[in-house]
Amino acid sequence: MPVLSLFYGIIVRMYRENTGKHNKPHIHAEYAGDEVVISLDGGIPSAKMKLFEAWMEIHKEDLQANWHLLSSGEQFFKIDPLK
């Protein structure tokens, strides 16, 4: 995947779309081995993204547990919303 930019340790990449595999325009941003996919057509407003990131941080262990359960074909559990 071509690197479009690199700054402050953040690597910005974009797939070549010669196969038509992807539908929505987006980029991949990677930092310290973690990656996010960001839509170029809007996506989640930044204020809501901050709420989502806070929820993820609070429920990090629950998310990891659900990842392992679902990866093993087991039943997942619901995670409380942000209140």
Can you walk through the features of this model?
- A hairpin with a 2-residue loop joins strand 1 and strand 2.
- With 83 residues, the chain is α+β, with helices and mostly antiparallel strands.
- The chain has helices at 46-58, 60-71, and strands at residues 3-7, 10-13, 26-31, 34-39.
- 30% of the residues lie in helices and 25% in strands.
- The chain contains 2 helices and 4 strands; from the N terminus they run ββββαα.
- It starts with a strand and ends in a 12-residue tail after the last helix.
- It folds into 2 domains: 1-43, no CATH class; 44-83, no CATH class.
Produce a short descriptive summary.
This protein is α+β, with helices and mostly antiparallel strands and 83 residues long. The chain has two helices and four strands.
